[in-house]
Amino acid sequence: MRTWKNFSLSMILLGALAGTSGAQTQTADQTQPQPGNSTSSSVTTVNQAIDRMIAREHDENATIRRYNPIIETYIQDMKPDKDMGAIPVKDHYFLGQANLSKGVVDNSMLDKKKGKMAEFNPLSHVSDYFTTSYVPEGFLQMIYLDTTFFDRQHYQYDYVGREFLGEVRCLVFDVTPLPKSGKGRFKGRVWAEDQGFTIVRFNGVYTPVAGINSFNLHFDSWRLNVQPGLWLPAFVFSQESDLKDFLGNHVRFKAQTRLWGYDLRNTGREEEFSQLTIEAATAITDQSTTQQDRSPIEAEREWQHQAEVNVIDRLQRTGLLAPPNEVDKVLETVVNNLEVTNNLDIQPEIHCRVLLTGTLESFTIGHTIVLSRGLIDVLPDEASLATMLAQELAQIIVTKPSTDQWGFNDTTNVSTVEALNHFSFRDTPADIQAANQKAVELLKNSPYKEKLGPATLFLKQLDAESKQLPALINPHLGNGVTLGSALAASGPALQPDKIDQISALPIGARVKLDPWSDRLELLKAKPVALLSAREKMPFEVTPFMPFLTRYQKPGSGVMADPAKADLAKKDQPQQHQQ
Fold first, then answer.
1. Same domain, yes or no: 432 and 481
2. What Cα–Cα distance (Å) separates residue 298 from each residue in 62, 289, 349, 405?
3. For residue 377, is it left (φ>0), alpha (ψ between -120 and 50) or beta?
4. Is the domain of 248 the same as that of 161?
């Protein structure tokens, strides 16, 4: 029997924005190694630390070139606003698979014409800004500090002190190119973790400017410890608040770049194989189920299910779909609540998965509901999440989407670069309209029926931003958020200047992504009280400030911070009888 589940998760905002964990800072005037740290035990001077850092960065560059991660860049052009400080007026979206072994090469997953893109000049991060044309490889270049000349012959290194980035203690240096050191040198600050001396963060700009029509953009680049001793690029934030081109035009923008899919070749299969057990030749079988043929109806159901599995498996292998994770369970809990309170017993059971891209979209594959990471990130509360899931649950009930075309394995055997142009799960306008009506009915009978105010505000905010943010709102695989006027017309009026009215969250407010395994988990950030309406920032790009930790083997049970164990216990769903 299905039961209604009540849960207390960080997914629920309760009227306050989720904040990012602030980095704790400590400084010291000497680079003394930690007792018992064998890696840094031989480093007793600043010069030794610099030499180790330089050598490690050259190794890091060689390591990075072994991988072909997925790279997603989302850019918002900004303009000053007297009430909100700055607001987005246009946006741009790039998604591709990097080919780092061949340099800074970003093979687009969005363009229909595939193949290697034109060679990129790493000194020109933006070209022809007058036509708002950004070069995606320019943002990919920002994962490197200096691919060739990071040494004492080209740079001056000034020790600043120590600082904790999350749980990782770092040595901090200001890095300045020496005179006549050449073009494309990095100028800024670097943070090197104090065990292997890997640079885990660098913040600054490439200098000097390459030419009259080129710009060097400021950026903040982060690496994560994804495997023992392995740090890989994960996040880049770039921003210019008032850059001027050679004609005097203002350049204002904010951009987030994310990388994931470093381990696509394995996707957990090697671990699964190592855990296989072989049954004995004389294994006992249940005689009552042997040699039982399937009826035509059962065969049809099995065919549809196998097609669904084919698509989901391929999307996961291409790095577009996250492996099963804790966020899926949250989504399935909400779907269960909708089913129970509407007296539904859908077979086979509904499952949920997360599309890893940052665009706002949702769709169904058979009996699997898929919501994008970007959509989950910006939803203000649980009732808003239920509203999005009700739309797709209604699709399954009303239109019963077929997966016939994916039953043959060759139809899903595509590469990462080809996947977005090969698959499509968009519904017809008629099907969407029918599902909209059913979704409103499901919500009116659900435990969320008295809590839909934030959901209506979300739809109104989305409509208000639709002209400025088409790249974020327009889907690539499935359907956009189109619940329609039946729900959007109800609820309170949108009041951007009201601090306690949260219509949508900034980008990246809900979940975090492991760039190695592609697994998602909920952010454990505490709610933050807003100081002004300017901090609401619905759908806006914000800086990255990850809480760095050293790699721990999954399931090891080791937690560096005891508070995390308490949070993990509090965030488990609680089941109640209806």
1. yes
2. 53, 15, 16, 18
3. alpha
4. yes
| Whether residue 222 is found in the same domain as residue 191 | yes
User: Does a cis peptide bond (omega within 30 degrees of 0) precede residue 208?
Assistant: yes
DSSP-derived secondary structure for 270-310? HHHHHT--PPPTT----GGGTT-PPPHHHHHHHHHHHHHHH
Gap between the Cα atoms of 331 and 338, Å rounded:
11
Beta bridge partners of 51: none
For residue 251, the enclosing domain spans: 31-260
In whole angstroms, give the CA distance from residue 477 to residue 375. Answer: 13
pLDDT-based confidence at 20, cuts 50/70/90? very low
* Token digits of residue 510: 């809900």
**Statement to judge: residues 331 and 238 lie in one domain:** no
For residue 283, being part of any structural domain is answered with no
pTM: 0.84
Of 209, 233, 260, the one marking the end of a domain is: 260
Identity at 283, one-letter amino acid code:
A
Per-residue pLDDT averaged across 123-133, rounded?
A: 42
End-to-end CA distance of the chain: 10
Confirm whether 120 is domain-assigned.
Answer: yes
CA 535 from chain center: how many Å? 21
Q: Which residues of 427-438 are buried (b: 16+ CB within 10 A; e: fewer)?
A: beeebbebbbeb
The reply to whether 51 falls in a domain is yes
Q: What is the pLDDT of residues 288-308, one digit of tens each?
A: 555 678 888 888 888 888 889
Please name which of 563, 516, 442, 577 lies closest in space to residue 230, comparing C-alpha atoms. Answer: 516
Listed residues 213, 233, 260: the one ending a domain:
260
Per-residue confidence band for 281, with pLDDT thresholds at 50, 70 and 90: low
Is 528 found in the same domain as 486?
yes
Q: Are residues 220 and 105 in the same domain?
A: yes
The number of folded domains in the chain is: 2
For residue 224, give the H/E element and its range: strand 219-227
Query: Could you report the per-residue pLDDT of 453-493, keeping only the tens digit for each?
Result: 999 999 999 999 999 999 999 999 999 887 665 676 777 88
- Domain annotation covers residue 172: yes
Structural element, H or E, at residue 567: helix 562-570
Is the same domain home to 166 and 254?
yes
User: At 52, is the secondary structure helix, strand, or coil?
Assistant: helix
SS3 track for 457-493:
HHHHHHHHHCCCCHHHHCCCCCECCCCCHHHHCCCCC
| Best CA proximity match to 509, nearest among 412, 376, 395, 332 | 376
Classify the C-alpha dihedral 439-442-447-450 as positive or negative.
Answer: positive
- CA gap 485, 42 in Å, rounded: 67
One domain, residues 304 and 444:
yes
The answer to whether residues 545 and 20 touch, using CB atoms and an 8 Å cutoff, is yes
Of the pLDDT bands very low, low, confident and very high (cuts 50, 70, 90), residue 407 is confident
